[in-house]
Amino acid sequence: MSTPNLTEKLVEIEKLNHSYQDANQSKQVLFDVTFPIYAGTNVFLTGYSGSGKTTLVSLIGCLRSVQTGSLKLLGEELNGANENKLRDMRRKIGFVFQHFNLLDFMSIRQNVQQSLELQADFSPRKARIRSEEMLDMVGLGDRVNDYPKALSGGQKQRVAIARALVHKPRLVLADEPTAALDSTTGREVTTLFQSLAEQLKCAVLIVTHNRRVLDVADEILHMEDGRLGTAVGEQLSLVFPTLSDNQLRDIANQAQHRTYYPGDILIREGDVADEFFLLLQGKVEVTKKNSNGQHVKLTELNKRGDYFGEMGLLQENALRAATITARGEKEVAVLTIKKEIFAKMVKDSRLTKALIKDEMQQRIEENLRSDGSESPQPTPPDIPIGERS
Ligand SMILES: Nc1ncnc2c1ncn2[C@@H]1O[C@H](COP(=O)(O)OP(=O)(O)OP(=O)(O)O)[C@@H](O)[C@H]1O
Ligand SMILES: [Mg+2]
Q1: In a 10 Å sphere around its CB, with 0-12 CB exposed, 13-18 middle and 19+ buried, how is residue 365 labelled?
Q2: Which position among 169, 269, 281, 340 has the lowest Cβ density within 10 Å, counted as fewest Cβ atoms?
Q3: Where does CATH 2.60.120.10 sit in the chain?
Q4: What is the pTM of this model?
Q5: Ligand 1 lining (C-beta closer than 6 Å)
Q6: Could you identify the atom of ligand 1 that is nearest to the CA of residue 51?
Q7: CATH superfamily, domain at 5-242
């Protein structure tokens, strides 16, 4: 994963609404959508069919006009932009679509070269060389004179990727780029796309239904009926791939999204444990009082998907063994799951239970290494919750 630049926003969307005019009635499909895309990040957009993903992507891609709200692309406001401006802005980004959208009457080199021909500093000779280099990077250096018809689905999508990246855009939009491919090819194409985007330092917004590709995301957004929310099920499935779709849906429905500010305390040592926490964004510090009553830092958690608070939940009325405080500059966003729901999750899924136990064991070992002064329990507590019938 690239190191995201969290200071520069390539896209800044605020309270974006969109409606389609159908016959003589208007149907709103986007509601108050607000989010940024930072330079160099991988943002995934998920959501059910008809939830508004393509509409959103087409607005960011200047393929439609903004109706209400603000959408800034590369610093330029698109609300009120005329056709010329939209066309100019469109040329600055890259697109990858589900159905490849290659032109059948052009060779694959010509298809790729098209993106360069639209650039202001176009030179035919350089464009040709650059297109061939780019096709080489997607593994099609020996096919540059072939026509799309002669290629497989995966190869066509590689051409589309070369076309999307050849002019080194700062942002690439991909709308279900793997939907028409089998899963192995889809995974290969996505991996290639990600690594090239990283090399060329461009941010990507990918619409996908494929949970297996989500682990490379810097951010996962979820669209539901035209509104943007946290992709709770997807986030959980990354951390606990052992949960079934039904379990994920049940837990996602009952999880809460919460935000803390640097300095806020999420968990206080000595309190009764009542919730499980999954980190979505930001950084937290884990501290524990030593025998002199001083707070000693045990560790820091800062990766999306890090979780905490499970130890106290796995024993009846256990007290929190450490304090967890929000740190860093950014807000800390978490998903929280109530004790009873967490207990049910562990009870219903033996594999999830094993996974958590394993993680706990590792943490205990880490704590023992980093904090020789006090010895926490040497083995993870057995997991009694919910096992009594
Ligand atoms: N050109 C259009 N005219 C009228 N309604 C439209 C148009 N395009 C999309 N819609 C409607 O807007 C809603 C959102 O559609 P959109 O294509 O953005 O969804 P999506 O999340 O991309 O779905 P999918 O996963 O099936 O691609 C749907 O109800 C759809 O029927
Ligand atoms: Mg769509």
Answers
A1: exposed
A2: 340
A3: 246-370
A4: 0.75
A5: 20, 22, 29, 47, 49-55
A6: 21
A7: P-loop containing nucleotide triphosphate hydrolases (3.40.50.300)
